[in-house]
Amino acid sequence: MSDMHPDVQAALDAARDLRHRIADLREKIDAIRARRPSPSGAVIPEIDAMGRLTDLYIAQGTADRLECEELVAEIMAAIRDSTADAARQYELLMDSDPWNDPIEEQPAAAVSEPAS
Question: What is the pTM of this model?
Answer without folding.
Answer: 0.72
